[in-house]
Amino acid sequence: MTNDQTAPAAVKILIAGGFGVGKTTLVASVSEVAPLRTEEYLTRASVGVDFLDGVDAKDTTTVALDFGRITISPELVVYLFGTPGQERFWFMWNDLVNGVLGGVVIADTRRLDTSFASIDFFESRGVPFVVAINCFDGMNTRSAAEIRAALDLDQQVPLLIGDVRTRGFGRDVLLALVDHLMTPALA
Amino acid sequence: MSEHWSERAAQEDDGAESMVRPYTITRGRTAPERDDLTLITVLTTAQDAAETGRRLQPEHRLILQRCRRPAAVAELAADLDLPVSVTKILLGDLIAQGLLLARAPLSVARASGGGPDLALLAAVRDGLRRL
């Protein structure tokens, strides 16, 4: 393929986490456009048999990806992709990790277990990530240390607590990721 | 199981119907012919694209219009309201005809075993701080 150097270069950041945890909300808080939605097919071959439990006999179904963008400069665009965390979607993540800078795992302290798969994915693929604890309306009742223990999180993985609806928190989460990526220990 | 669409397309060698039709492709077969298009591959319409493409489908024309300003595969799929894999097939048609130019995502150094690209990260950081 020709590689057109006149177009902006693109990189992406993956925003992962369980259903309803605030992935698209975080994307919306920092994106320069309202989050866009795109769909990709899930086929029998790609998801295996387990996925078909409870699914009627259709050959394909689709999974939606919400994403946004931040134009850094005329030469560089960062795309933010909300990513379903469940293992059954991991086949799709092989495309998603292409050009990825790093990841954000959003977690809800009431349902921390829904974040395990996302953390596992990033760890298994060597994708650096930060964890953002989303507490709508300050509903967090657990300390950072408790959360780290519950998630079995490496000490060097940044953990932030805030409200993903606010642009300030979204920005801080992404900045924490970039700072994390720049730390010599990761190099 | 029926034959793969790409095999069928290859058999149609008269040239009159060489364009693969997306809605026949979508019936359960979703693999684009080329595997180098990613969600964030950036597409731009070639300068001379306006003069060619007589047999293009409406979706192809929409893509060429849209890509006068560079756009990523995912953005085009969202704009066209088509699944990503179908969009990739249409984009592949246009790239093969030289009507569309593609730019691959930056290969992020860590993934290829090197250290982080500090200049890239610094640029991203500066951009985020302006949010």
UniProtKB/TrEMBL annotation, chain A:
Gene Ontology MF term list: ATP binding; GTP binding; hydrolase activity
Keywords: ATP-binding, GTP-binding, Hydrolase, Nucleotide-binding
Keyword ATP-binding belongs to the record: yes
Keyword set includes Manganese: no
One Pfam family from the record: ATP_bind_1
Family indicated by similarity: Belongs to the GPN-loop GTPase family.
Protein name: ATP-binding protein
Organism field: Streptomyces tateyamensis
